[in-house]
Specification:
The protein is of the alpha+beta class and 233 residues long. The protein is built from 6 helices and 7 strands, in the order H-H-E-H-E-E-H-E-H-E-H-E-E. The strands form 2 sheets. A 5-stranded mixed beta sheet has the order 2-4-5-7-6, covered by helices on one side. Strands 1-3 form a two-stranded antiparallel sheet. The structure holds zinc ion (ZN).
Length: 233
């Protein structure tokens, strides 16, 4: 009986310390990894580079290379809700197995920028009315295209923010390779849960976009990777 007691007590102590060790290790990992920390809360805003730095960026509203010819973002960054960023990372990983990747044109767009866009172009065919907001204002939409292994964009129906009928997903008077590329992008995005917008081949909404409200968060308030740098909270 005594021997059994000692044996059971030793086993319990061993299990207890093992559990304690695993718990301590988990806490250290969670505290040190921005990616895992972001996974804890799907609503948090993250910079895509802290989730998947292999995704190429060409953030047009961070430059004058856009349809309003005005720099609207103070920083050319792709900010998204953590859950949308994770979905996007899945697409990148999936595409890499085919020697392809993503290049992102736009992600989160603060509501104040939406208002500025509306001021410049108050036409709902081109710009979402800020009274209701765009899904970009929720941090749950992305505009993007495909690139090859060298970073070169694959031929698509139009450039970004081309508001002609050629941008529509139902437009078919296009070269076979372009149709194939558009479909490839759509299929990869849909596999990860994104919802394509019918009028713009480059636009996709995150599957849970309805869970997120329209926000006006300044880019500077969202940490740049690494998250422990001097970015303001
Ligand atoms: Zn868009």
């Amino acid at each position: 009986m005594n021997v059994l007691n000692v044996w059971a007590s030793t086993l319990m102590q061993t299990s207890f310390f093992r559990l304690l060790f695993v718990l301590a290790l988990s806490i250290v990992v969670l505290m040190q990894s921005p990616i895992r920390a972001a996974e804890l809360n799907p609503t948090v805003f993250v910079d895509i580079r802290s989730i998947n730095p292999r995704i190429a960026l060409d953030i047009r509203y961070g430059t004058r290379n856009n349809f309003v010819k005005e720099t609207l973002y103070p920083q050319a960054r792709c900010i998204l809700r953590a859950s949308t960023a994770r979905q996007l990372s899945q697409v990148q990983t999936d595409l890499e197995t085919r020697g392809l990747g993503l290049k992102v044109y736009d992600c989160y767009r603060p509501l104040s920028v939406q208002k500025r866009l509306w001021q410049i172009k108050p036409d709902e065919r081109y710009v979402a009315n800020p009274t209701y907001g765009s899904r970009h204002n929720r941090g749950a939409a992305v505009d993007l295209t495909l690139v090859d292994r060298t970073g070169k964009e694959l031929p698509m129906p139009t450039g970004f923010d081309d508001f002609t009928e050629r941008s529509s997903r139902s437009y078919t008077n296009l070269p076979a390779q372009v149709l194939k590329n558009r479909q490839l992008l759509e299929d990869a995005m849909v596999r990860a849960g994104f919802i394509p917008l019918s009028t713009e081949w480059w636009h996709f909404d995150g599957k849970d976009w309805q869970n997120f409200s329209v926000r006006d968060v300044a880019f500077g308030a969202i940490a740049s990777p690494p998250l422990n740098n001097s970015a303001p909270k």
